Give the backbone structure.
Amino acid sequence: MATQDKGIALVTGASSGIGAIYADRLAKRGYDLILVARSKARLATLSRRLRNETRRSVETVEADLTSSIDLRRIEDILRSDSRITTLVNNAGVGSAVPLLDADVDKMEDMIHLNVTALARLTYAAIPGFAARGGGILINVSSIAAIAPELLNGVYGGSKAFVLALGQSLVHEFADKGLRIQTVLPGATATEFWDIAGKPVHQLPGQIVMSADDMVDAALAGLDIGEAVTIPSLPSQAEWDRFDEARRTMSSKLSSCIPAPRYNVRQSGCVSA
Ligand code: NAP
């Protein structure tokens, strides 16, 4: 495994679960780290271990990414530190609670973290990456992005946002040296499920991946150039066919002629 200096990777939600494994793997790949989360104690424990094991520099920043003040602090770090070569937008919360039982304020908090924070941090990182002609953005979405019936709809919607943003960024920045990967984990054994209201032991064991395996597969997907990585999906060709169907349909999604099945009297095309 290569351990030469790779610059700094900033990982959000690094205090536990998937983010902590990303921190471990990226340090072992030769990155220095900036680790972000709310839990100061957990970040300190992880950073101590990683410094000892890898001799990399590991900085921790305590921040609640739903607070606009804290979020702006992380944005400033991303804008001002040109040694940052990789951003892992991993912090997120989920919900398994159906709409009628869900607290709308908690749903809004979820949107702030899963959507607003991720989008703002992306906007903070990408201009520097583009100016320097390189950088890696890893956005952690979920299979709920394409299977929104599985969990709470706001969670699925928030993760669909992450997927659509990533697809758009790949399109926009493909020729500027940036690598943009969207990761769609299936059920992964972390504290996510306790917070989401459905402990992971209630899920069938055969659908739950360890966080170690999930991150190792996702990084292997990055290494082979995947723009969208679904660690559980046996064949990438299945995703490619799904995406191709979307692209094929997209040429028909905007027209001056309403579809015949609506029997609308046509008013003709509007010229600019
Ligand atoms: P986790 O163990 O609960 O980790 C979530 C991380 O986000 C923690 O480090 C937490 O740290 C941080 N976080 C939560 N709220 C935050 C806030 N307001 N500000 C800053 N950091 C915050 O769950 P996980 O499974 O590793 O989740 C990581 C990502 O994977 C999420 O985006 C999740 O949607 C996605 N995902 C998970 C699964 C799964 O089955 N586990 C499946 C698909 C996608 P603090 O509490 O210290 O702030």
Observations:
- The longest strand covers residues 32-37.
- Residues 13-19, 37-39, 42, 63-66, 90-94, 113, 140, 142, 185, 187-188, 190-192, 195 surround NAP (CB under 6 Å).
- Residues 104-132 form the longest helix (29 residues).
